[in-house]
Amino acid sequence: MELAVLKHNGEETGRKVNLSDEIFAIEPNDHAIYLDVKQFLANQRQGTHKSKERAEIAGSTKKIKKQKGTGGARAGSIKSPLFRGGGRVFGPRPRNYSFKLNKKVKQLARKSALTYKAKDNSLTILEDVSFDNIKTKNYVALLSGLSLADKKTLLVLPEANNNVYLSSRNLPKAQVKTVSDINTYDLLHADTLVLCEGSVSKLETLLSK
């Protein structure tokens, strides 16, 4: 599969990039994508939720009424879950939601996501990007030149570039990551994936291991 390399203004440079079929044209595995996205979202959870149970409620332990003769049910403590202000039964406790996922499954999921982007024509190859200073308008101009100003985009850089990253940070629909940091969730969340020319070979090397 060949794609033309675009300039920052959206015009073609005359160069083309040959995308590996082993990365961008495999048989997508939806279950691998599901597992990888599930793990990513699970890892975002803090897991600090907590509610007090009856042993943790501040209150008297005095028996609030006599055992028999009232015509009602027995009640031993005001901290009972049956009363307003009492402890919660089996309430949430702090826990870790993360789980293990094999590297090959994660690799398959990313390949599947890249294949979907290629099939849907949601993949753009851009000449390498570098800004001299940090200005949001520079990144907005870049997206406008590619006709992507109103779309959710993920720009993948071959290596970290602080000026490009900080220039995009104020834009809610724009995301910038390096090849080593991309994940399946971000790939699928973006309407258009923009790969820098230098990122293609690094991405293929990373996913071919």
Automatic annotation (TrEMBL):
Gene Ontology molecular function, alphabetical: rRNA binding; structural constituent of ribosome
Pfam name, any one: Ribosomal_L4
GO-annotated cellular components: ribonucleoprotein complex; ribosome
Alphabetical keyword list: Ribonucleoprotein, Ribosomal protein, RNA-binding, rRNA-binding
Domain of life: Bacteria
Chain intervals for the UniProt region annotation (Disordered): 45-77
UniProt key word Zinc: no
A Gene Ontology BP annotation from the UniProt entry: translation
Subunit structure, as described in the record: Part of the 50S ribosomal subunit.
Family recorded in the similarity comment: Belongs to the universal ribosomal protein uL4 family.
Summary of the function given for this chain in its UniProt record: Forms part of the polypeptide exit tunnel. One of the primary rRNA binding proteins, this protein initially binds near the 5'-end of the 23S rRNA. It is important during the early stages of 50S assembly. It makes multiple contacts with different domains of the 23S rRNA in the assembled 50S subunit and ribosome.
Protein name, per record: Large ribosomal subunit protein uL4
Species in which this protein is naturally found: Echinicola vietnamensis (strain DSM 17526 / LMG 23754 / KMM 6221)
Lineage: Bacteria, Pseudomonadati, Bacteroidota, Cytophagia, Cytophagales
